Amino acid sequence: MSYTTQTQTSMQTDGEGAVNEYLAFTLGREEYGIDILRVQEIRGYEPVTRIANAPEFIKGVVNLRGTIIPVVDLRIKFNLGSPTYDQFTVVIILNIAGRVVGMVVDSVSDVMTLSPGQVKPAPEIGTVFDTDYLIGLGTIGERMLILVDIDKLMSSSEMGLIEKIAA
Amino acid sequence: MTIDMSQFYQVFFDEADELLAEMEKLLLALDVSEPDSEDLNAIFRAAHSIKGGAATFAFNDITEVTHMLESLLDRIRKGEMALTPEHVDAFLVSKDVLAMQMDGHHHGSSVDQTAVDSVCQRLKALSQGIVAESPAPATAAAASPEPAQPATAPVADADGNYRFRIELPEVPQRDVDALAAELGLLGTISQESLANKRVVFTLTTPESQDNIVAICSFVLDPDDLKITQAAAPGGAEPKQTVEDAGYGIFESEKAEAASQPAVATAASSKVEQPAAAPAAEARNYGRRATDKEGGSQESSSIRVGVEKVDQLINLVGELVITQAMIEQRIGALDPLHHERLLNSASQLARNTRDLQEAVMSIRMMPMDYVFSRFPRMVRDLAGKLGKKVEFVTRGAATELDKGLIERIVDPLTHLVRNSVDHGIEMPEKRRANGKSETGKLTLSAAHQGGNIVIEVSDDGGGLSRARIVAKAKQQGLPVSDTMPNTDVWQLIFAPGFSTAEVVTDVSGRGVGMDVVKRNITAMGGTVEIRSVPGSGTTIAISLPLTLAILDGMSVKVGEEVYILPLGYVIESLQPAAVDVKEIAGEGKVVKVREEYLPLIPLYQIFAIEPTFVDPSQGIIVILESDGKKAALLVDSLVGQQQVVVKNLESNFRKVAGISGATILGDGGVSLILDVAALLRSSRQLNADPIFF
Question: Chain A within 8 Å of B658 (Cβ-Cβ)?
Fold first, then answer.
C-alpha cells in the first residue's frame, strides 16, 4: 500500500522518506487524520438547504462565497458521535480534484506531522471505514490517528457526491 | 529560423472571420450602378488583409483565391472596370469559398475543391472578359512606354540609385530650401526653377519614391507633388516590359490582372506608374491614408477570453451578495449612532450596483452580430424562389448576452427562412392582391423591461386559420373551431406540423417550428405569433437579457423555498375542493376552466412535510412546458424576484427535478425547479418515482 498521494509535499527527501502533515479531527471518540493539502478551510456550521430525496448524511448545499457546495455529515454517514448542530460544530471544506465539499465533524484538534515510519498499515477489521479508504494508522506517542484517504472516500459511489457513479 | 506559427493561427482565423463578415456586409450594401469608392476600398482592404495573413501562414489555397479577388477588386476600385451584379455574385460566392477554406484549415473540415476551382474560374473569366473588350489604361501604359517617358519602371543605376524629378507646386522659398536640405540627406540633389516660379529638384537616391513623398508631405500636400522617375545617369537601358525589369518586386498592373501568384506588396504599387498624371498619384496616396485609418481602428477593442470575463462576473456576483449581507446586518443599527457607517454602506451599494452593471455589459453583444448574417441569406433565398424581398433590420445595436446570441441564431434563421418561403408571396400574387411586388421582411430587436424582444415580421399572406385547423384535425391534435386565434397560431409549433403545400429544400418539412419553440423555451424565452390574413405575420421572441439571471417566482413548501422560472408559470390559484378529483392509479387532477390538469404535489416529490396536503388549502401553480400543462401544489407563494443562476453540478451532482440553485439576499441557498422534468415525470410519478 502506498502511503503518499501524488500531490503531497515532500518536506524531507533524505533516507527517511517524505514527511506528511495531517489535519486531525474527531468523530465520536475516534481521532482521524486527513491530508492537510486537501483542506481548503475550516468553518462553523451554517444552515443548509436540503436536497430532496438525498441520503440522510448529505445535509444539503450551502453558499460558500458565491459557490454552491454540498455538505456531508460524516457522523451520520459512519454512525459516530451525535449529530448535533450548534456554534461549536465544525465544517472542514475540502478541495478534491477541483470540487469543493463541506464535511461536518465533531471537532478539529491540530495538525500533525508524520513520517512514513510512524504510519502503520491498517488492520482489516476494527474501524467503521472500509480499509480501502484508509491510508493507515498514524501513531504519535499515546495518540493514534486513523488516516483517511479522503480523495477516495469522497469520490466513492458510497458517498454519491459525484455524478457518474451515482445510480 | 523557425517560429511556431500555430499560436498565431487563432488570431488569424478570428480576424479573417471578421473581415469576411465585413466584406459580405459591404458587398450586400453596395449599389451596383453607383458604387461608393469608400466601400470598394474597404472590400479591397478586407481581401488584401486576408491574403496577407494567409500568405504569412502559408495557406496557399486561400492566398490564391484572395489574390484573384483582390486583383479584380483593385481594377473595379480604380475605375478600370465597371461593377456589375455578376461581380457582386462572384464576390459573394468567393467569400463563401474562403469561409469554407478557412474552416478547413481551422477545424479540419472538408473543403469542396470543385467549388474552389469553379470560383477561381469565375473570377478569372470576369477579369479576362473585360480585358479583352477594353484594354485597361494601365496595361497599355506598361506594355508600350512612350518615348517621352524613357523608363516606365524605376530603374536603378549601377550604384543602386534612382533618379527622381520632383516638381513642386508654388511654395514659399523658405519651404523650398527646407525641403532641399531634407532631401539632400537622401542623396545628391540639384535644383532648377521653371518659368512659372515652380521649382524642380532632381534627386539621385537609393531611397524609394514613398520615402520622398513622406518627407515632402511635412511641408506640402503630396497631392500637389509631381514626381517622375528620370533616367538613371548611368544610362541603363529602359527595359521593354515591366515583368522583366521588376518581377516580383515592381509588379505592374498587368501582372496582377493576369493573376500571377505574386507578392504584390503595397509599396510596389506606389512606384508602378511613374509617368501617370498627378490625379492618379493622388489616388494612390489617398488609398494609403485610408489603409492606415483602417488599421488604427482595431486598437479600440481588445480580445479577452470568455473564461476571464466569466470569472469577473462571478467575482462581482459574490461582491453583490456580500454587499447585500452587509446591508442586512447594518439594517438593525441605530441610524443616529451609526450615520457615517450607514452612509458608507449606501455608497457601497451604489458602487456595487454600477460595477455589476458594467461587468455584465462586457458579455453583451449587439444583435447586429446575428442580424448581419441574414441579408445575404434573404437575398439568396429570394433569388432562388423568384421572390422580391426588401430586408430591413431595426435595433441592431440592441445588446444581448453572448451565450444567448449564439443560441438565437438557429431559431432566427429558421423563422426568417419561413417568412421568405411561406410568408411573402410571389410577385404576381402580391400584385394581384394590390400590394407592391416587393415584399418587406423586418427583423427587429428592442428592450422591453428585463427582456429583449426580437421580431420577425413580414407583410405576406399571413397564416391561414382554416388550413391550420384542418391540418391539426387531420393530425389528431385537440382542436375546435372556436379556438381563439392565438391558440390556433401556437399549433404550428406542434411537432411535425407544416401547412406548406409543397415541401421545398428551404422549408416545409414540418420539422423546425417545434425545434424553434423548444430552443427558445430552453433559453427561458417565449414565442408569440400575431398574424392578419392578407397583411402579414409577426413572430415575436421574448428572451431574458442574460442566461445568468432568471425571473423567478419563489414558492414555499413546508420550510423549503424553491424558485420556479417565471417563463413556465401561467397562473396560480387556490382551487375549490370540488375541482380536485382523484383518478385511480393516476393521482389527482384539478379542473381549471373546463380543463383537467394533472396535479403534481411538490411535497410528495421532494418528501417534504407540507403545511397543507389538501390542494384547496394550498396554492396551485399552473405550469406549461412543451405544450403540456400541469398544476403544481405548493403551500404558498413567497414572491417574485430576479435570481442569479448558479450551477449545482460544479461541486455536486445533478439532482432530479432541480435545474440549478441561487443565492438569496440573506446568503442562503434556494433551489431552482426543473419544470420541464417535473412535467415529464408527472405522469409516471405515482407508479414509479424517478427521483433517486
Answer: yes
Q: What is the pTM of this model?
A: 0.47
The DSSP output letter for A74 is H
CATH of the domain at B181: 3.30.70.240
On whether both B161 and B111 belong to a single domain, the answer is: no
Residues 6+ apart with CB under 8 A from B665: B321, B324, B325, B328
Contacts of A158 (CB under 8 A, 6+ apart): A130
Going across the sheet that includes B595-601, the strands are: B569-573, B619-625, B628-634, B595-601, B587-592, B580-583
Residue B648 at interface with chain A, using a CB cutoff of 8 Å: yes
pLDDT at position A7, please? Answer: 41
Which of B321, B654, B668 faces A49 most closely, judged by CB atoms? B668
Residue with cell 478569372: B124
Q: What percent of chain A has pLDDT over 70?
A: 81
Report the domain count for chain B. Answer: 5
Element (H, E) at B227: strand B226-230
Q: How far apart are CA B430 and CA B367, in angstroms?
A: 31
By CB neighbour count within 10 A (0-12 exposed, 13-18 middle, 19+ buried), where does A109 fall?
A: middle
Domain with B228, as residue range(s), is 142-281
Euclidean distance between CA atoms B400 and B450, whole angstroms: 11
Cβ neighbours of B289 (radius 10 Å): 9
Q: Inter-chain contact A161–B657, Cβ cutoff 8 Å?
A: no
The string of pLDDT tens digits covering residues B186-235 is 677 777 776 666 677 777 776 667 666 666 666 666 666 667 766 544 44
Interface pTM (ipTM) of the complex? 0.76
Q: Is B385 exposed, middle or buried (0-12, 13-18, 19+ CB in 10 A)?
A: middle
Taken in order A69, A75, A81, A82, the sign of the CA dihedral is positive
Is A67's CB within 8 Å of B658's CB?
no
Which has the closest alpha carbon to A32: A108, A119, A114, A131? A108
A23 beta partners:
A34, A111
Can you tell me the distance from the alpha carbon of A1 to that of A121, in angstroms, rounded to the nearest whole number?
8
Q: Are B623 and B632 in contact (CB under 8 A)?
A: yes
Residue B289 lies in a domain: no
* pLDDT per residue as tens digits for the range B378-399: 888 888 888 888 888 888 888 8
Query: Under the phi-then-psi rule, with left for phi > 0, alpha for psi from -120 to 50, and beta for the rest, what region is B291?
Result: alpha
Q: Provide mean pLDDT across the span B285-289.
A: 41
**CB contact (8 A) between residue B669 and residue A62:** yes
| Domain A20-156, second-level architecture | Beta Barrel (2.40)
Residue B21 at interface with chain A, using a CB cutoff of 8 Å: no
Chain A, chain B: beta-carbon pairs less than 8 Å apart: 76
- For every residue of B577-599, DSSP letters joined together read GGGEEEETTTEEEEEETTEEEEE
Beta-bridged to residue B599, according to DSSP, are B631
In chain A, residues with a C-beta closer than 8 Å to the C-beta of B605 are 52
Q: How far is it, in rounded angstroms, from Cα B14 to Cα B308?
A: 18
Indicate if B100 and B195 belong to the same structural domain: no
Distance CA B509, CA B495 (A): 11
Whether B670 and A49 lie within 8 Å, measured CB to CB: yes
With 0-12 / 13-18 / 19 or more C-beta atoms within 10 angstroms meaning exposed / middle / buried, residue B656 is: middle
- DSSP code of B541? E
